[in-house]
Every structure is written in C-alpha cells, then in structure tokens.
Inverse folding.
C-alpha cells in the first residue's frame, strides 16, 4: 500500500461514524484475504464514502482484479469516486448508483470470487438471494455488522448458515463479520 492510499484511509477514518465505515481491522482482513485468494472479481454492496472500496481495490491492484461497487446515494458515490481517484484506483473500479438489489438483478451478469455486503442490514437476505448465483464455487461472501445489528441481519445469518452450499464462520472483528465459503 502506497503512502497516498495510507493517508487517504487515515483521512476517511476520521469520518467513520458519519459514513458507517468498516473498522480498519476489517479492511485489513479483507485486503489480506483478497491477496490470499488471488481474487480477481469482487462485488461490494454499499460503497458509502469509499473506505472499504479503497482497502479492496488496493488488494485487487496486486492481484490484477476489478471491483464493482454499488451505492444507493449519489452524493456518497461521488465522494467515493474522488477518493478512488486520489488513490490511483479508479481504473480498476466500476461505480454503480441505485438500489443494490435492482442493480444486481438488472445490470450484473458476471461471476465473482468475493462479494462484500455492507448496506441496508434488513436487506441482507435479499442481497444474498440475488448474489448467490453470481458467486463462483470456492468464492467467499463477507458481510459486516453481524453482531452490531444482529436482529436486523438474523434472517440472512440463518439462511446462509443453513444453506448446504456454504461453510460459515462469524469472525470476531469489530461489529462482527460473517465469512461464508461456497462449497
């Protein structure tokens, strides 16, 4: 990770409460996991101001991959685009704005190595149903806020934990992160 990217991440950490960003520990974990998996194609549901996208794209720069990130709010997506550009990551990121469920159903036709879910907690179950067919065998779904928003994400956690195609573990990262490996 270069100094500019480190500096941008530190800057974004100052607004983490306002933009509901993941923790730096969760970002670092995802960055390492992408490198370990040698992931090429990643989908992020919930761009916000781009904090997690910077962590993801920084790893994808090393693996030769690409990130598609979806955000409901145009204002947040514009802010994220600025940070992606400052970090020199714009060329490996496609930003989409709108309802994540609609964008996935109407626009996304490719498969992914890793899918990160961090948007409307009550819609995690809908997102899972939409992305399940798009995740490659051997791919991983990561979902944030599993313990901090346990009641809201309970239907998702139950569905994926009982799905015969997934091996699931909840990781002890801030706010709780679910990791599901597609068998």
């Amino acid at each position: 990770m270069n100094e500019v990217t480190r500096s941008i991440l530190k800057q974004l950490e100052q607004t983490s409460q306002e933009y509901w960003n993941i923790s730096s520990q969760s970002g670092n974990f995802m960055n390492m996991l992408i490198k370990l998996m040698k992931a090429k194609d990643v989908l992020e549901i919930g761009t916000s101001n781009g904090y997690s996208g910077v962590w993801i794209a920084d790893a994808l720069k090393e693996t030769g991959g690409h990130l598609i990130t979806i955000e409901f709010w145009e204002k947040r997506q514009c802010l994220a685009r600025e940070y992606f550009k400052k970090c020199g990551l714009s060329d490996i990121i496609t930003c989409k704005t709108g309802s994540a469920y609609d964008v996935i159903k109407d626009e996304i036709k490719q498969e992914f190595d890793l899918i990160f879910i961090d948007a409307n907690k009550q819609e995690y179950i809908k997102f899972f149903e939409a992305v399940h067919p798009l995740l490659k065998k051997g791919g991983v779904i990561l979902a944030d806020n599993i313990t901090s928003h346990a009641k809201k994400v309970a239907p998702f956690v139950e569905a994926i934990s009982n799905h015969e195609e997934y091996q699931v573990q909840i990781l002890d990262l801030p706010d709780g992160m679910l990791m599901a490996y597609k068998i």
In short: The chain is about 45% helix and 25% strand. Helices lie at 3-13, 16-19, 24-37, 51-63, 74-86, 100-107, 124-131, 150-161.
